[in-house]
């Protein structure tokens, strides 16, 4: 690796008296040889710089000026880049650099959360081992990996909710951690707005103690003094605007105003999780841990959440299977695989490119080394008995010993093979809906008219509770509409994936027997076993009973059912729920290649954008029908 030297000289012509601080720093490329920094002819740094953990060190404007300065770390990996950076000494907060309160602390990573040799082991094989990683101040990390690799376990360790088998977690004692809690029934006796305010524990404690004093009819002089102290603390923590701020967050996550002062016990399951999302946002911590924050959110609310998170200055560690969300919010990816965590700077798409290139480079290097070893071995074998060539043969043998192949660890990631086919092709019109209506306490939809042409891929979107799943149930006949008709093509065969499919797996049947019931007359044992194998179920797995498998495994079983049914129309209600990235991407590809007609509900914008040829949005006042893709829908919406 060649050494590159660069320096940045501040332009003080417009402000000759400016107080600029010069600080030396050392940088390197990463161990994959990715470019971290380039320099122009005049020595100005032109690209963002990252440390070995993937933390952003500085951000560079197009004209070469440093617009963000983060933290600096000397890195003992390959090629070194040295640069001189300058920073105003009078600055107390560098505008635009998230979360950096003291930009003069330039030497050493300003890390707020770090692990040292973390190992977690439940059975014989550890989930992850000797993980040492630092999460830099102000960055937003997407924690990604296959289902079952230990993402949620790692998150619980970071948040102090679970002790690792070995190693420790450290942070600045003055830094506050906010966590998206998963126990949605823990606050049943509290009001919704109080549940949100409880996210800021220090504020809640002050409020509770103050309210207790005021509720005492025999308040003493000493109590009065203490109440005054508490009022000062309450004001300092913006307590007097707490209910207003909590209400704004509740509105953002879609909780109606009339529920804000009601009890949590009156909020429907699923919606309680939205309250807990508002709770962690209200806490405004230094470090935010978010495990699947987009679960149970509709597309519009996810967009709102992206905007809120992008405005925050705190460090975030986020688990999500929403590719669009990761691309929009995260500055880095923390990839949990091979029993370790690797950091990559950039979005999810950039991570995919970098990780693929690194893997290909590793395999290519090993292939070249194997060819070299084979060539050397052939020489040794041919000339080792030849007196005139024996020295050369001995030298070649030593060379073989020096060539080391890079270790290629088995990945926890596996992609199922999904392919949907149709037995009989339809022509022209697949579905006609006329005057369809359904109501429970209130009307969900009335006088709905719909014509579906063969081959269309229709995404049904809209806010939660507007009736998307109800419409799907009415279309497949699982629910009787109050008015109107649903007329399918005479030769239609329908495959249905219900959002709530727990009832499909209640019987104590083996995976093989469950799948076998959906096979066609000519589908023998080999076809059933082959289908299960393509969906990543091993020989041992197929004897398990379906009532004990995970949500992601249930999803794959249902895809197997559809593969065996070979319908010419499929209705899928939130099919990406509980799936890992590999399964989502395999499903995405399978549906792109599906020759039949598709109607689906999804809150995954990447999924919708890549598949839909038509968008139907359900709203409280009717439907919006866009004959075009998701981007055209967004343009029409303005």
Structure description:
The protein has 638 residues and is an alpha/beta fold. The protein folds into four domains: 4-88, no CATH class; 177-350, P-loop containing nucleotide triphosphate hydrolases (Rossmann fold); 356-402; 429-637, Rossmann fold, CATH 3.40.50. It contains 17 helices and 24 strands. It has a six-stranded mixed sheet with strand order 11-12-13-9-14-15, with helices on both faces. A six-stranded mixed sheet has the order 20-21-22-18-23-24, sandwiched between helices. It has a three-stranded mixed sheet with strand order 1-6-2, with no helix packed on it. Helix 3 runs antiparallel to helix 4, helix 5 packs across helix 6 and helix 9 (348-383) runs antiparallel to helix 10. The chain is flat. The two termini are 50 Å apart. This is Bis-ABC ATPase YbiT. Residues 9-24 have a biased composition (Polar residues). Residues 113-363, 418-636 form the ABC transporter domain. Residues 1-24 are annotated as: Disordered.
Count of helix runs: 17
The assigned structural class equals: alpha/beta
Specify the CATH architecture of the largest domain. Answer: 3-Layer(aba) Sandwich
Strand content: 15-25%
Low-confidence stretches: 1-56, 59-109
Q: What integer value in Å does the Rg equal?
A: 30 Å
Number of domains: 4
* Count of distinct strands: 24
Helix fraction, binned, reads: 25-40%
CATH class of the largest domain: Alpha Beta
What's the arrangement of strands in the largest beta sheet?
11-12-13-9-14-15
Biased composition (Polar residues): 9-24
GO molecular function: ATP binding; ATP hydrolysis activity
Region (Disordered): 1-24
InterPro entries: AAA+_ATPase (IPR003593), ABC_tran_Xtn (IPR032781), ABC_transporter-like_ATP-bd (IPR003439), ABCF (IPR050611), P-loop_NTPase (IPR027417)
């Amino acid at each position: 690796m060649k050494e590159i030297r660069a320096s940045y000289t501040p332009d003080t012509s417009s402000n000759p008296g400016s107080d600029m601080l010069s600080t030396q720093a050392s940088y390197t490329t990463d161990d994959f040889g990715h470019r971290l920094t380039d320099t122009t002819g005049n020595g100005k740094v032109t690209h963002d710089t990252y440390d070995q953990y993937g933390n952003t060190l500085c951000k560079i404007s197009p004209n070469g000026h440093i617009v963000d300065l983060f933290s600096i770390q000397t890195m003992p990996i390959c090629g070194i880049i040295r640069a001189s950076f300058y920073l105003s000494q009078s600055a107390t907060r560098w505008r635009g650099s998230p979360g950096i309160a003291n930009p003069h602390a330039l030497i050493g990573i300003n890390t707020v959360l770090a692990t040292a040799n973390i190992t977690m082991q439940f059975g014989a094989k550890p989930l992850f081992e000797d993980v040492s990683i630092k999460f830099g101040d102000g960055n937003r990390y997407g924690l990604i990996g296959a289902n079952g690799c230990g993402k949620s376990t790692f998150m619980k360790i970071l948040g102090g909710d679970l002790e690792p088998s070995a190693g420790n977690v450290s942070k600045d004692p003055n830094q506050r951690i906010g966590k998206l809690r998963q126990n949605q029934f823990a606050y049943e006796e509290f009001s919704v707005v109080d549940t949100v305010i409880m996210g800021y524990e220090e504020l809640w404690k002050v409020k509770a103690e103050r309210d207790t004093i005021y509720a005492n009819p025999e308040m003493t002089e000493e109590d009065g003094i203490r109440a005054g102290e508490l009022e000062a603390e309450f004001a300092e923590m913006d307590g007097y605007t707490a209910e207003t701020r909590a209400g704004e967050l509740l509105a953002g996550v879609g909780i109606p105003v009339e529920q804000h002062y009601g009890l949590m016990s009156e909020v429907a399951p699923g919606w309680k999780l939205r309250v807990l999302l508002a709770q962690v946002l209200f806490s405004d911590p230094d470090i935010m841990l978010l495990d699947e924050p987009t679960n149970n959110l509709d597309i519009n609310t996810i967009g709102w959440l992206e905007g809120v998170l992008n405005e925050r200055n705190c460090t975030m560690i986020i688990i999500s299977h929403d590719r669009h969300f990761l691309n929009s919010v995260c500055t880095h990816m923390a990839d949990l695989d091979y029993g370790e965590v690797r950091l990559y700077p950039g979005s999810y798409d950039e991570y995919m490119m970098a990780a693929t290139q690194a893997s290909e480079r590793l395999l290519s290097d090993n292939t070249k080394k194997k060819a070299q070893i084979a060539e050397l071995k052939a020489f040794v074998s041919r000339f080792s008995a030849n007196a005139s060539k024996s020295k050369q043969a001995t030298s070649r043998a030593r060379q073989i010993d020096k060539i080391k192949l890079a270790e290629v660890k088995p990945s926890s990631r596996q992609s199922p093979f999904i392919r949907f086919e149709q037995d009989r092709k339809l022509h022209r019109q697949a579905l006609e809906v006329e005057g369809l209506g359904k109501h429970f306490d209130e009307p969900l939809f009335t006088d709905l008219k719909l014509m579906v042409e063969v081959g269309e891929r229709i995404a049904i979107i809209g806010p939660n509770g507007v009736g998307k799943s109800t419409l799907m149930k009415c279309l497949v006949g699982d629910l009787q509409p109050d008015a109107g008709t649903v007329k399918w093509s005479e030769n239609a065969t329908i495959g249905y994936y219900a959002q709530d499919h727990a009832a499909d797996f209640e019987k104590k049947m083996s995976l093989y027997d469950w799948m076998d019931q959906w096979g066609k007359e000519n589908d023998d044992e080999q076809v059933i076993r082959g289908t299960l194998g393509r969906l990543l179920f091993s020989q041992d797995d197929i004897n398990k009973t379906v009532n004990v498998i995970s949500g992601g495994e249930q999803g794959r079983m249902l895809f197997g059912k559809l593969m065996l049914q070979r319908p010419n129309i499929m209705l899928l209600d939130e099919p990406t729920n509980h799936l890992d990235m590999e399964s989502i991407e395999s499903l995405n590809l399978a549906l792109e290649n599906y020759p039949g007609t598709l109607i689906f509900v999804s809150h995954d914008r990447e999924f919708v954008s890549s598949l839909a040829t038509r968008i139907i949005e359900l709203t409280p006042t009717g439907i919006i029908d866009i004959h075009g893709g998701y981007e055209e829908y967004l343009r029409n919406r303005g």
